[in-house]
Amino acid sequence: MATKPVKLLGFWDSPYVNRVQFALNLKSIDHEFIEENILSKSELLLRSNPVQKKIPVLIHGDEPICESLNIVQYIDEVWTDGPSILPSHPRDRAMSRFWAAYIDEKWLPLLWEVYEAKEEDSRTTLLEKVREGLVLLEAAFVKCSKGKAFFGGDSIGYLDIALGGCLGWLKGIEKLASVKLLDETKTPALLGWAETFCSNEAAKNVVPEPEKLNKCLKEFQAQAAAATK
Amino acid sequence: MEETGGVKLLGFWVSPFAQRVKWALKLKGVQYEYIEEDIYNKSPLLSKLNPVYGMVPVLVHNGKPISESIIILEYIDEVWKQAPLLPQDPYERAQARFWAKFAEEKVRQSVWEAMCSSGEEKQKAVKSAVEAFEEFEKELKRRGTKFFGGETIGFVDIVAGCISYQLAVHEEVGSIKILDSSRFPAISEWIKNFLNHPLINEGLPQKDQMFAYFSKRSKEIASRKMSHKTA
């Protein structure tokens, strides 16, 4: 089953796509990356994810799997000889899933809202909420890592991947708004974690460079605005 | 890996999220102590066990809390292996997780929004709900089985199951019509089969009590929205 071809439909600036890339790299899975233009979706994307029409989509053989965290779990369950992504104890797995869901439902959407914010006031309020979320995640990191380098312990795990995918946008915002979101006083452990994560083999050629990302997102926003006129 | 430590469930009588957990525990024959929480007057216990959200359900197993209904379902399935909720095959599991998320975010959520909103917002929400139902109907038809999980109740059935006993009440409270049995025959049949299971039907909240509760909630949400608009 693990020898069928693997394709990943996505775009390099997406946190959701980055997550899948980390997982594929961690497990050393050969794959073809098919770049999608989300303002002009390909037939393949529409056929593979007819319900949501979103990236990322992993196509394994001819079977499509959608939703980044679903894909990461799928990869973990199929490629069992690489390092494990989810922890082995059900309670630790529940904890990882809880915080990943928190990131997706409450925190990551704030980052996109910062990019979309038209006024300084709304941006300031959003940045404050981002920081509050990071303080919660700092506590979660301290608890999950138990003094080790990653949420997953000695090696990158599910929650590292879930939050690691957000580092591109987080650093992009720090550059764009000239602010520090991860800082030495409020989130020292996460600051250290981010550096370790970004220099890891699985992540280093995946996390987008802030200036390149911001330029790309600005162009995307302009194109999206023009498309709706 | 079966653990025989104590199981407690903190819930609220009308919460569809807590109901999911009750169904899972019952289907697996797991004994548990149920603790009714007043979510409008939260106990120190609830705040301690779920400090991030302060919401039900919370499952406490061997003294450790787990929150968020769908995450609790996966935990239950991993600890108690009998009557599995998720399929064994990784691709089928990924499909089940996808459709469970869809059932929660697109199906249940859009019905709730349609019930609580008015005017143009309500029309938009009803349209979203109908579209979500169409996707769900298509998938149920494609599978052609009694339940989403096959011939027995599974993960997606439990997550989507709240519509089986609450949708009609939401429709009445919100003066909306979403489930037309001629338009959605597969969903209508699925609801019938689901509610026919004795463990599913047992102990569900009474219709008139749900109607009173959701009417009140709906009015509170509407007046909150109005005060935000005029503030």
TrEMBL record, chain A:
Q: Name one GO biological process term.
A: toxin catabolic process
Q: Which GO terms describe its molecular function?
A: glutathione transferase activity
- The protein's name is glutathione transferase
Q: Which InterPro entries match?
A: Glutathione-S-Trfase_C-like (IPR010987), Glutathione-S-Trfase_C_sf (IPR036282), Glutathione_S-Trfase (IPR040079), Glutathione_S-Trfase_N (IPR004045), GST_C (IPR004046), GST_C_Tau (IPR045074), Omega/Tau-like (IPR045073), Thioredoxin-like_sf (IPR036249)
Cellular component GO terms, alphabetical: cytoplasm
Q: What family, per the record?
A: Belongs to the GST superfamily. Tau family.
What does the record give as the reaction this protein catalyses?
RX + glutathione = an S-substituted glutathione + a halide anion + H(+)
SUPFAM superfamilies associated with the record: GST C-terminal domain-like (SSF47616), Thioredoxin-like (SSF52833)
Q: What class of enzyme is it?
A: transferase
Known Gene3D superfamilies for this protein? 1.20.1050.10, Glutaredoxin
Q: Which keywords, in A-to-Z order, does the entry hold? A: Detoxification, Transferase
User: Which part of the chain is the GST N-terminal domain?
Assistant: 4-83
Keyword match Transferase: yes
Might you give the EC number(s) for this enzyme? 2.5.1.18
Species for this entry: Coffea canephora (Robusta coffee)
Answer yes or no on keyword GTP-binding: no
The GST C-terminal domain covers 89-220
UniProtKB/TrEMBL annotation, chain B:
List each coiled-coil range.
Answer: none
**Into which EC class is this enzyme placed?**
transferase
Q: Which residues form the GST N-terminal domain?
A: 5-84
- Example of a GO MF term: glutathione transferase activity
Keyword annotations for this protein?
A: Transferase
**Gene3D superfamilies the record matches:** 1.20.1050.10, Glutaredoxin
Manganese as UniProt keyword: no
Quote the PROSITE patterns the UniProt record gives.
GST_CTER, GST_NTER
| Residue ranges annotated for the GST C-terminal domain, each copy included | 89-214
**Enzymatic reactions:** RX + glutathione = an S-substituted glutathione + a halide anion + H(+)
Q: Name one GO biological process term.
A: glutathione metabolic process
Supply one GO CC term from the record: cytoplasm
UniProt EC number: 2.5.1.18
Q: Sorted alphabetically, which SUPFAM superfamilies does this protein's record hold?
A: GST C-terminal domain-like, Thioredoxin-like
In the record, the note on similarity to other proteins reads: Belongs to the GST superfamily. HSP26 family.
Protein name in the entry: Probable glutathione S-transferase
